[in-house]
Amino acid sequence: MLNNKNMLLGYGETLTKPVYFNQNGGPKNKPYTYEENKPVILEKLQDLILNINTISPDALPDGKAVAKFVLHPTFLAKSYFPIDLLNHFSLESIGSKSIKIKPRKDNKIKGRKNIYITICIYVSGKRENFELFIEALKKDTFKDIEKLKNNFITLEDISILEISDKIKNIDDDIDKVEVTLHTPQNSLSIEKKFENFALKNGVRIDKNKCIRVKGLTFMSFKANRKDIPKLAEFSFLRTIRKLPELRFNKPIITRSLENSLLLSLPSEPAINQNLKVAIFDGGIGGNDYELWVKEINLVSDKNTGIKPITHGLDVTSTILFGLIDSKTETLKTPYCNIDHYRVLDSNTHTDIDLFDVLIRIKSVLEKNNYDYVNISLGPRIPIDDDDVHVWTSTLEEIFAKTGTLCTIAAGNDGDLPDTLNRIQPPADLINALAVGAATSLSDNWKRCSYSCIGPGRSPGYIKPDGLAFGGSEEEPFQIYNPVSKGIVRVAGTSFAAPLVLRQAIALSTLLRYKITPLTAKALLIHHAEAKRFAPQEVGWGRFPVNISDVIYCDDNQVKVIYQGMLEPSQYMRALIPFPDSEIKGKINLKATFCFTSSVDVEHPINLTRSGLEITMRKNELSKNNTYPLFNNKNIYADENEKRSDGHKWETTLRAEHTFTKTLDITNPCFDIVYHERDRGIPCKNQEKLEYVLVVTLSIENMPELYNLIRQKYQTLQPIEIQQQVRISN
Length: 729
Known about the structure:
single chain, alpha+beta, Rossmann fold, seven-stranded parallel beta sheet
């Protein structure tokens, strides 16, 4: 269907070019001198040795203990990681986490409180390595070695990794546990030594329930409450917790069915035969959708219960046909074909299902490169700031490598007390789209009370990424049921997530342009409407209900997609399309950056390995006329969560501002530099980084803006709609 509306513009990357700047940072305000810090850290190290002496040799693989090195909050940024100090004493950073502390000395940073976020580094080493550190302090052997002294003054505290630090969510009825081990360089010897240590203490490890993810190993096995403290003595054990149950079918409303003789399935094949789409769920249990859906059974149990199949069928129907109502007669032709993987067996609330489900999903994703994936299940447990869960850890790197866009249900425990109502793994994936539920399709919407809330960690602070209609008692989520050929009324984030995936697939299908999964993600986030709700409630906002809201522009508005690659450690300038005419009204600018990033899952506070530093200039010819469009205030809701460089490491950045004083805005641009780190330590960039930028410029009282931009920037081209399809939702 052709139309004469103003279309979204593509090829914004033609407005980019490299630029060069000096990157000299100013001196750091250091809280401690070497002389001030020496007696404190010396005492801490001596206490550490006393604690190491109390640990059984069997619990020290290769004779190594694990200590906590806490940095002063002033040195939270990546460039102050004390790597030279650790290397000097043959100590190894094997992980880290964020903690809140009251430092011994406060620099009285303006606007800050006494409690600060900082980094706790897990450091492994033999007793003699820590003793060498003590001797060096006593003799002042590195006092005059500048790089070691600069590392040393970053230290706030040193202590042993306590048993109490490792035990989480343990209750009286515990039967099975999840364990996370530090396994630097995927050391199998640590796994073997833990197995032997556990067996010596009466616990047998199930080797089939073991997942390795770069620097960490996750295990699941049977254990009693009395076994937990002993197992936690093992020095390289990071966490031990009760194995959570699987979530996928918590009832939100009573599932109801309306029979309809009017409804019929379409007879046409899927519109886009090239997209590869997968659903991981409970199966579909029939051949009603065989024209578009291939069901692949990954479980040996042939007697899957009715609930998993019902859930899988509803999720599949949502992606195929979207929402329907009682007036619908013929269902819409599906946008794509789907591989539906049945990953649930009859034991849906046991560790067999929970760990095995993840292993099944992992095995498929490592062998198949899908464009789009939906996962509406996972562990029923709130995310933990200290650690990335096994589900998240496993899937994160896969999606970073494949570029797959995966929609994840945020969870349905939003009505539980604080902390228990937080998003559930793997909805904390930074390389995916976590979706919560909104109450209505109308403009009068809010978060469903059952929809889990954020925030996520930093990076990954804005979670869920957004909301979509998920259904409620007052306004149910209505989808087609092939068994009864009727309408089913349901509710839950399980259905909001595939509804968003359907929108992403629609963009890839309907537009004659290279809409990659990353581009679809950027467009959906860019057009999410937050109203006045807090980010922890709605993320970036409710995703667009109508695709037309994404692809069309008003006359006084222009939308542009930039797609390209960023060169390592090189500034790129992206011009913002701007008219030459006199401006007589307010200027509204909205911009969204998206990219995927490799991760270091053992370092949650430094999770992402890639980051962008973005500066907006009101005039590209001016060095000083800048505006802080992308800054902490636009990312973090809590003053105490802010960090000097935290926003640079988010994989999604969105900001919007209305400029009332417009005289100094003439040829605006973004200057972008791509940074990289390895386990929190700065490193030289090795690879180019794929990015997507979406910009919307609106100018009050300028109805000719769209045409003016088209005339001035002729490399920008309207994105056309496929002629054989019509825009619908």
